[in-house]
Amino acid sequence: MPTGVEIAGIILATFPLIISTIQHYRKGIEPFVIWARYNRELNQLRRVLELEEAKLLNTCEKLLEPIVSTADLAVLIADPGGNSWKNRELQSKLKRFLATAYQSFLDSLEDINETLTELSVKLDVDLKDKVLYI
Question: How many other CB atoms sit within 10 Å of the CB of residue 103?
Answer without folding.
Answer: 11
